[in-house]
Design goal:
With 136 residues, the protein is α/β, with parallel strands linked by helices. The chain is 18% helix and 24% strand. Strands 1-3-2 form a three-stranded mixed sheet, covered by helices on one side. It has a three-stranded mixed sheet with strand order 4-6-5.
Length: 136
C-alpha cells in the first residue's frame, strides 16, 4: 500500500506500541537517527517516534526491571535502505543478514528485496527490509 493510499474505514490498524527501554530518550533518539525520523514531544511517560504511517513507537522507561527484548521490523523504501546502513556504520552498530546475528556486515535478499538486522541499546532486535515477507 503506498503512503498516499488510505485504509478502509473498517480496517483494523496498529496505532502505537510501547517499547520498553532503560533510557527512553537514548533509545528513541537512536532509532530516529538510524531510520532518519524524529522523536516527538513527550506524551505522559512516553516518548514517541512517529513512523510516518499513522503508527508510533512509544518509548517507556523501565527502571529496576530487566528489558525483555522484542523484534520490530520496519519496511523502508528501497532508495532509503543504503542510507540506513550507512547510519548504522557511522555510529558503529553492526548489522547482520540474519535474525540470530550470525552473519555480521551482510544483508539478506529475501523476497526480492534487501534486509538487515541490528540491536538497539536495549537489545531489541530491529529489522529493516525493502520488501514485505511473502505470506501463504
Amino acid at each position: 500500500m503506498s503512503d498516499t493510499q488510505q485504509y478502509p474505514d473498517d480496517a483494523v490498524q496498529l496505532n502505537h506500541t510501547v517499547v520498553h527501554a532503560r533510557d527512553r530518550r537514548l533509545s528513541a533518539e537512536f532509532l530516529a537517527v538510524i531510520l532518519g525520523l524524529e522523536v516527538g514531544a513527550p506524551f505522559g511517560p512516553f516518548l514517541p517516534v512517529d513512523l510516518g504511517n499513522g503508527v508510533t513507537l512509544d518509548y517507556y522507561a523501565m527502571t529496576g526491571e530487566p528489558i525483555q527484548p522484542q523484534h520490530y521490523a520496519f519496511l523502508v523504501p528501497d532508495e532509503r535502505f543504503d542510507a540506513v546502513i550507512a547510519r548504522l556504520e557511522a555510529v558503529g552498530v553492526t548489522y547482520f543478514a540474519d535474525p540470530h546475528h550470525t552473519e555480521p556486515g551482510r544483508i539478506n535478499r529475501l523476497f526480492g528485496g534487501r534486509g538487515a538486522y541490528f540491536a538497539d541499546p536495549d537489545g531489541h532486535n530491529m529489522e529493516i527490509m525493502t520488501r514485505p515477507y511473502a505470506r501463504p
